[in-house]
């Protein structure tokens, strides 16, 4: 749903996502390095806001 209050339209945002992220499950695993044995660390202290995890690293977007 689009309320018209954003700086970019829904179409523009969709194109940015398509240009920057491969959302196939295998590619998500590869991009975020989810095959590595990190799950003990996540279970102990959570998985958000910790710089050592790949999903916390910002990605430069192509517009």
TrEMBL record:
Alphabetized Gene3D superfamilies for the sequence = 3.30.300.10
Q: Which GO terms describe its molecular function?
A: ATP binding; metal ion binding; methionine adenosyltransferase activity
User: Which species is this record about?
Assistant: Euroglyphus maynei (Mayne's house dust mite)
Name used for this protein in its record: S-adenosylmethionine synthetase C-terminal domain-containing protein
Has keyword Transferase?
Answer: yes
The signal peptide annotation in the UniProt record is: none
A matching Pfam family: S-AdoMet_synt_C
Q: What are the UniProt keywords, alphabetically? A: ATP-binding, Magnesium, Metal-binding, Nucleotide-binding, One-carbon metabolism, Potassium, Transferase
- ATP-binding as UniProt keyword: yes
Q: Please report the stretch or stretches of sequence annotated as the S-adenosylmethionine synthetase C-terminal domain.
A: 3-57
Q: What's a BP term from Gene Ontology annotated to this protein?
A: one-carbon metabolic process
């Amino acid at each position: 749903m689009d309320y018209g209050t954003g700086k970019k339209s829904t179409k523009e945002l969709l194109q940015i996502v398509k240009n920057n992220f491969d959302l196939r499950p295998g590619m998500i695993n590869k991009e975020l390095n989810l095959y590595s044995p990190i799950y003990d660390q996540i279970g102990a202290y959570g998985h958000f806001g910790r710089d050592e995890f790949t999903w916390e690293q910002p990605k430069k977007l192509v517009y």
